[in-house]
Amino acid sequence: MSHRGAFIVIEGLDRSGKTTQTETIQKRIQEAGKEVVCIKFPDRSTSIGKMIDSYLRSQSNLDDHVVHLLFSANRWELASTILAHLKQGKVVLCDRYAFSGIAFSVAKNLPPINLAWARAPDASLPSPDLTLFLDISPEAAQSRGGYGEERYEKEGMQRRSQERISDGKGGGKGTWIIVDAGRDMSAVTEEMWVHIRPLLDGLDTPVGRLWD
Ligand code: FDM
Question: A GO molecular function for this record (predicted)?
């Protein structure tokens, strides 16, 4: 029986090194002779992604519930693509996923978005086989050069969302690993690799669904 590829998600605060690590891990997977597809959420290239982008850059205002649903819809836009790549035996490496979606929406101040409501639109999306959460304190993240200009790039929002990022982890059969991202980049890469390498030969179990 041919194996499907592994679905690997990398989550973490801004400045946790998430994007750099995703690029490094992509190269490593290729060097190991495996095909890998990188996806990033939000995917700002789609029409829904463009609405999200405009909101994040404060060029438009949207109700918090609406933007939450747009982030989820943005994942649904790519769900069949993710499944197709996995079926072809490719590794799918994804920078942020539904865990960010829940964390940032629930972390908003007022009125609070209910956790069960926040989880619902992502139910049945492909579930990652492995989620690596790059854990760094908001203070350490900020000391790496400060946050940018976007709507959520503020210390309070980052800290609150950090506290909520594991709210989604109870779902799915995949593994959830917390990696200390406060260390130097290569130490973080090595620890991530320990968890990723065993998945490179593929899996013979069906892709899970959030939040089964
Ligand atoms: N974000 C990201 C959300 O609020 N919900 C989501 O579902 C996702 C995927 O968007 F502040 C937030 C997290 C971050 C912002 O992300 C843009 P990038 O990684 O900086 O593009």
Answer: nucleoside diphosphate kinase activity
